[in-house]
Amino acid sequence: QLLIAAASRLAEGGHLGDAREGLTRAQSLAIELGDRSLQCLILNNLGNLSHHRGRNDEARGFYEAALGLARALGDHRLEGGLLGNLGGIEYDHGRFDEAQRHYESALALAREVGDRIWEGNSRSNLGLLHHEQGRTAQARPQFEAALTIAREIGHVRLEGTVLCNLGLVFEAQGDL
Question: Among 22, 64, 91, 160, which is most exposed with the fewest C-beta within 10 angstroms?
Fold first, then answer.
């Protein structure tokens, strides 16, 4: 866990190579210990790191491997997060139907396990997807629900993102 946290700090500071090295070391230890839950978290973090570096195919591989472990472990919370991450990869590649499928599955799992953060993120992602496809009437309720969640749980970063996205929807609807 400590190596994962240290790698996250390194990545936030822009030291992506060092972050990857730390995660690779953590992965070796998790495999040696036979800790599949920890392996799953590390694979997710490696996927995030690859995605931030623009290596989407590599990120997809990490996310899919982690998703297999999450499902084998019955970890629905992490499964939902990984589906959301895979949706982001599909969105980046313009595969909107696949992205929507992943986002909707992630939302269903977030609601099932009561994870308000993931629910808010999933709704925001769905809203943005709808907006990008010109479906502002479908986007707005997703953003409004995400905004309510963000405010209820005090997730300021999500609130800021959703407010920006709502502004895009209002603009598209001519509601300046």
Answer: 160
